[in-house]
Design brief:
about 40% strand; mainly beta; about 5% helix; three-stranded antiparallel sheet; 1 helix; single chain; Immunoglobulin-like; 2 domains
Length: about 150
């Protein structure tokens, strides 16, 4: 007998699948907190796009619902790190009860940019999209002509 842990709301891939599991998963998805389907920082990582131009790199990160103060950016030895830490507290007071929810999510993405310059990096957050412009370092000529005396 083989036993396995099956995460909540995951389809089982065994020979005894009767189709009822699909129905249960559909119900779980319907009544989940994120309905209609939307991305959550708790269960997903943010997506990034990277463009390599001649003089700079342009990194775009999708961060819907994230405030500028929740984002940390750093560049160390060519590694651009984008970190998001989001702390949400929700409090509702109705009738004779108090309802509180707390959520904390943290994610980090790293992108290696071999010839990134640490000067003049610009970042802008607009409509949930963080755009980071990283200039490329000017490559110094590796070869040198040696004059003979």
């Amino acid at each position: 007998m083989v036993t396995a842990l099956i995460p909540f709301n995951r389809k089982r891939n065994d020979l005894m699948n009767t189709g009822f599991d699909d129905f249960q998963n559909m119900l779980d998805d319907f009544f989940a907190e994120g309905w209609p389907l939307r991305r959550s920082l708790a269960g997903d990582t943010f997506k990034i796009d990277l463009q390599d131009n001649e003089k700079e790199y342009i990194v775009e990160a999708e961060l819907p619902g994230v405030a500028k103060g929740d984002i940390n950016l750093s560049l160390e030895e060519g590694r651009l790190q984008i970190s998001v830490k989001k702390d949400e507290v929700k409090e509702e007071k109705e009738k004779n009860y108090i309802h509180r929810e707390r959520k904390f999510s943290s994610m980090t993405r790293n992108v290696f940019l071999a010839d990134a310059a640490s000067d003049d990096i610009k970042a802008k957050l607009t409509d949930g999209v963080l755009t980071i412009t990283v200039p490329k370092a000017v490559k110094q000529e590796q070869s040198k002509l040696i004059e003979i005396e």
